[in-house]
Structure formats: C-alpha cells, structure tokens
Specification:
Blueprint: E1 3-12, H1 16-27, E2 32-36, E3 49-50, H2 52-60, H3 64-68, E4 73-75, E5 77-82, E6 85-91, E7 102-104, H4 107-118, E8 124-128, E9 131-138, E10 141-149, E11 152-163, H5 170-174, E12 179-181, E13 186-194, E14 204-208, E15 211-217, E16 221-229, H6 233-239, H7 241-251, E17 269-272, E18 276-278, E19 282-283, E20 286-288, H8 303-323, H9 329-366, H10 380-387, H11 393-400
Parallel strand pairs: 1-2, 1-11, 2-8, 5-14, 11-20
Antiparallel strand pairs: 3-7, 4-7, 5-6, 9-10, 10-11, 12-18, 13-16, 13-17, 14-15, 15-16, 19-20
Helix pairs in contact: 1-4, 1-8, 8-9
Length: 418
C-alpha cells in the first residue's frame, strides 16, 4: 500500500523555480514539501548564469554576501566576435542594480545554497529520489501527486500543487493543461573544452557565416553551445566528427591544440530547443511556473532568472493565503489567476524577443554555410552600440533585469536556528 503524506503545499521539481519558491514559502511560515527526482543537484546543467535580477532577490533576502562567498566568476560584459570584429553586446556596468554583473556559478552551487537556506525553516522539507509520475484529481481539482521512490510508491495530498518540473513537465501533462508551441528553428550541441593558461576570460559568442558558437568561461574549461538548424543533427553526423572539429577551430582558432578532447560524438550532447507556453497556467489546486509554464529559448540565458521571478511573484501573491490555515483550495484559485496575469507579460515579451532573434539572426547565420568568400558585416544594431557605447545598457537591462522585475514582498518568519 502506498505511503500517504499530507502537506499544505507540494512543489514538483527541485530546480531554480521550485527551490526558490520552497525557500520563500517556508520563510513565510508555510509547510512546503519539494519533490526532486534526482538524488542530488550534481548534473551538467545548461544554465549557470545568475543574472542581476536574481542577485537583487538574493540581496532582498539578506543573503547576498553569503551567496557570493560561494565559488563563482563575475561577468560585467558580454562580447561577441562577428567575422573578425569584436563587439560588446551588453555592459552590465550601466544597469541600475546592486550587482552590475552576471554571476557565473554552477547551478548545483546555486541550488545547494537555496536548499541550505530553506532548511533553516521548520516548514521546509526536500525529498530527493522522488519522481512525480502523475496528479491526483477530484473532478477538475488537483488534490495531490503520485510519486515513485526507491522505497515504493507515495501519494502526497496537498492543498496546493506547484508544477515546477521543467519543460517536459509531467505535472502539466497529467493535469491536461494545454501547451502552445511558439516554434524554435534551432537546436544546440553542448560540449566542453579545456581552458588553458593565457586564454581570454570572455563569455560571449563567435559568429561566422554558417556558424554560431557561444562560449561560457567556467574557470577550468569552456562550456560551448554550437547552434545547428532544428533537426540538423543527422546532417552534422553525416559530415563527420573531423569536419565538426574543423568548424570549431575555424570559429575559435585557440581550440586548435585541444579539439581532440572531443574524442567521439558521446562528448557532444544534443539539446533540443523548445519555446512554448501554457494557454493557462493553473487549474483548481494546481499552478505551473518556470519552464513548466513557459519553456524558454537559450537565447540570452534568461530561463533561470524568469523561473526565479515566477517564484518570487508566486510567493508574493500566495504566501499569506497559504499561511492562513482557514483558507482552502477554492480560496486559492483567484490568486493563481493573479500569478499568471502578473507573469504573463514578461514571459510573452521575452519569448517574442527570443523568437525574433532566432528567426532574424540565428537562422540567416546558419543558412550562410559555405559563403566564406563573403565578409560578414556587423548588423546595424551592433554598429550603433559600437559607435555609442551607452546603448550597450539596453540589451544588458533586457538580459540582466528584464520586463517587470519582481521584488520580495512575501512575509518573513525567523529561521528555526534563531
């Protein structure tokens, strides 16, 4: 017989959205259980960028100095080499936030930090090796989730379920929420190459006809994202590994002496890019946030930060009601609609910008394969930013802060240790 747990709020997914919301709700005195299907956070995540908007939230929680004591690098500019010309895409030094940089921190460090802070509150529980496999419903109302654990099946009954289980969300699928696909003409090949003494410390992009490569400086190695047309992996494989290595060296010559570390296709992971959004983010007893509500393109690396913003807005709107034991599921439903209304505009505008960049910049670049004889000119927006550096603050604000940034308004109870 399945074990049964009862909890005020159950969060499916221990990623940035789920863990940050768990911290904020526990801080407000809410009993919250986070279910994470993996045994730990030590995985190779795509996004290790903590943007100024998220750092502002951490500051508002009084945790910024403690957070920045964890291993990280600080990136105050994003640069790109277009053809043979280096340009500054965004300067965070011009953004009016406390932290004028992106913190490059492994996501497991970020999640470990949030977990440790949340664990100081008596209402917080994290259960790992616990995979949500479905939802429990009474009519149209979600009343809990089905969970698989190494010890056997588990039922978690909750007054509110939060789906924060990513772009392939089991929760949203099981609950019958409708997904709108916005289209993504690209996929990404994800790999790492050693970083050697004398390498520049520049996080940014390299663009040449037919090739778009993003490089993230992770201290001892380069994390690389090589953009290909959607569904183009078979064509890449057909050209062969040597041809792929040659393309990598062509766009980043400093890789010439180390490209052999890509010994086989096993060292190169395919990330299928999806941009989608739920038609409605909630139903009675259930709210989806983060990638479960809106899968973002990797353009700008803003997915983590949108997820954290969702968590802050959710806590601002729901924490007081969840802390009031007199209120139940029916009382929460209007508040779930408020969360969606609050976060829908930033999501729509960010996704629209990402889709425009995919279609108008990345697709034409990828279509230029084989046109090496034609010099690649700077797009006119980059020419303007090069001429008037003050304009570099605009993309920095769009990437680092975004539309309608959230601030912590949820109540705070003292941690158990205090």
């Amino acid at each position: 017989m399945a074990e049964v747990l009862n909890v005020r709020c159950c969060i499916a997914g221990g990623g940035p959205a789920g863990m940050m919301l768990g911290l904020l709700l526990a801080r407000a005195g809410v009993e919250v259980l986070v279910l994470e299907k993996h045994a730990d956070f030590l995985r190779d995540f795509r996004g290790d960028t903590v943007h100024p908007s998220t750092l502002e939230v951490i500051h508002e929680l009084g945790l910024l100095d403690k957070f920045l004591a964890r291993p990280h690098d600080e990136v105050s500019e994003l640069r790109a080499v277009v053809g043979n010309t280096e340009v500054v895409l965004a300067s965070f030094r011009r953004v009016g936030t406390r932290c004028k940089f992106i913190a490059m921190m492994p996501q497991w460090e970020f999640l470990d930090f949030v977990r440790d802070e949340a664990a100081m509150y008596p209402g917080f529980r994290l259960r790992q090796n616990a995979e949500v496999t479905g939802v429990i419903q009474e009519g149209d109302t979600v009343t809990g989730v089905q969970v698989a654990t190494p010890e056997g099946s588990l039922q978690v009954m909750a007054d509110l379920v939060i789906g924060a289980d990513g772009r392939r969300s089991t929760v949203r699928s099981a609950a019958g929420l409708v997904v709108r696909d916005l289209g993504a003409p690209i996929d990404v090949l994800w790999m790492r190459l050693p970083k050697l003494p004398g390498d520049p410390s520049t996080t940014g992009g390299r663009i040449t006809p037919g090739i778009f490569l993003a490089m993230i400086d992770r201290g001892t190695y380069w994390q690389c994202a090589y953009v290909i047309p959607k569904g183009g992996i078979e064509a890449v494989h057909a050209r062969g590994l040597e041809a792929f290595r040659a393309d990598m060296v062509k766009v980043v010559p400093l890789f010439a002496g180390r490209i052999g570390t890509l010994a086989s296709w096993d060292d190169i992971k395919l990330l299928s890019v999806t941009v989608d959004r739920l038609e409605r983010w909630y139903k009675p007893g259930l709210l989806c946030i983060g990638d479960a509500a809106h899968a973002m393109s990797p353009v700008g690396g803003v997915g983590i930060n949108l997820a954290v913003q969702d968590a802050v807005a959710t806590a601002n709107i729901l924490a007081g009601a969840l802390a009031d034991v007199r209120l139940g599921r029916a009382d929460f439903t209007p508040l779930l609609a408020q969360v969606e209304k609050r976060r829908l505009l930033p999501t729509r505008l960010t996704q629209a910008a990402q889709v425009a960049i995919q279609n108008r910049l990345l697709s034409p670049v990828l279509a230029g394969r084989g046109s090496d004889a034609t010099p690649m000119e700077l797009p006119w927006p980059l020419k303007l930013m090069r001429r008037w550096p003050l304009l570099q603050a605009l993309p920095a604000y769009a990437v680092g802060v975004g539309v309608r940034p959230e601030h912590v308004r949820s109540p705070a109870a003292a941690p158990a240790g205090l």
